[in-house]
Amino acid sequence: SDKFAIYPAMREAIKKFIDGLPASFPKNDRAAFREAWSGYIDMLHRDGQITDKQAHNWEGPARYPRRRGRC
């Protein structure tokens, strides 16, 4: 198995997570961002969309990226 095969799945999860955040999500609240990421990963794991290894090793985005058209 390719050791880098995890990255496309992780990139897709991060994209879906960021795109799913409401516009009112506090941009400067890193704790809230980390908590939301953790809950998202737990949901993916419970639903069987990611493996145990992925759930325990995926780190969230380093910071909350701004989306175009949002302040």
Overview of this structure, please?
There is one protein chain. Helices cover 54% and strands 0% of the residues. The chain is mostly helical. The mean pLDDT is 80.
Uncertain runs:
none
Into which percent range does the helicity of residues fall? 40-55%
Largest sheet: none
By secondary-structure content and strand pairing, the structural class works out as: mainly alpha
Characterize the overall form: globular
Round the mean pLDDT to the nearest integer and report it: 80
Strand segment tally: 0
Task: Write a compact overview of the structure shown.
The protein has 71 residues and is mainly α. The chain has three helices and no strands.
Topology of this protein?
Elements: H1 6-20, H2 30-46, H3 52-57
Features:
mainly alpha; 3 helices; globular
